[in-house]
Amino acid sequence: MIFIRLFCELFKAGLFAVGGGLATLPFLQEIGQSTGWFSQQDLMDLIAISESTPGAIGVNAATYSGFHASGVAGGIVATLGLVAPSIIVIILVSKVLERFKESSLVQHIFYGLRPASTGLIAAAGFSVVLATLVSVTDLPSDPAGAFNWFGIVLAAVLYVAIKKWNRHPVMYIAASAAVGIAAGYLNLFG
Predict the structure, then answer these.
(1) Which of 12, 87, 108, 124 is the most buried (most CB within 10 A)?
(2) Which DSSP helix (H) or strand (E) runs through 147?
(3) Three-state secondary-structure class, residue 134
(4) Model confidence over 8-58: pLDDT tens digits?
(5) SS (H, E, C) 19-81
(6) For the chain, how many helices (H) and strands (E)?
(7) What distance in Å separates the CA atoms of residue 101 and residue 93, rounded to the nearest whole number?
(8) Stretches in the chain below the pLDDT threshold 50
(9) Does the CA dihedral 67-73-76-79 come out positive or negative?
(10) Is the Cα torsion angle 128, 131, 136, 140 positive or negative in sign?
(11) Of the candidates 13, 12, 38, 36, which has an alpha carbon nearest to the alpha carbon of residue 23?
(12) Interatomic CA distance for residues 61 and 75, integer angstroms
């Protein structure tokens, strides 16, 4: 029964997450909350692993969440659920779009979908920022304690480095992992 639900939940995410892999994150957050298959912290780990492994983030995230919920078979079922709508829609759209690509209706549809994609990605990004850099659930007596200052500084340094030097993203991921390991051993997390 869990496999059918996994497939259906990820199928819905794949069908409505217009804008690519990052747009699946709000759907995965909702799936975790409604099913209990993974927590908010698990979702943050899912994002970190999905971003640092080869492949599309949405597919990696679906595989990870399915594996987390029900092992290897769950990972396979969740991945198939996520990609099935894309395969179906792309086959159908490619048949129709060739005939109607100059249609003003088609152009208007794409004009409306672009901001929707942007909004979904921005919402996912904002959720990641809040979950990673700010603790709004356990506000301490000192509001400054709600911030993960180490994470904020690391994110800022990475942002500047990315803007200043054009290096492969793997370099930044590896550097961040090394800094995280060092910080963990030095007890800099809090």
Answers:
(1) 124
(2) none
(3) strand
(4) 999 998 888 777 777 788 888 888 888 888 888 888 888 888 877 777 888
(5) CCHHHHHHHHHHHHHHHCCCCHHHHHHHHHHHHHCCCCHHHHHHHHHHHHHHHHHHHHHHHHH
(6) 7, 0
(7) 10
(8) none
(9) negative
(10) negative
(11) 13
(12) 9
Helix (H, G, I), strand (E, B) or coil at 97: helix
Q: How many residues does the chain have?
A: 190
What is the distance between the alpha carbons of residues 24 and 10, in angstroms, rounded to a whole number? Answer: 9
- Cα–Cα distance measured from residue 170 to residue 16, given in angstroms and rounded to the nearest whole number: 29
What type of residue is 57? I
pLDDT score for 110: 81
How many CB atoms lie under 10 A from the CB of residue 132?
15
Joined together, the tokens standing for residue 146 give 């709600």
Model pLDDT, residue 190: 54
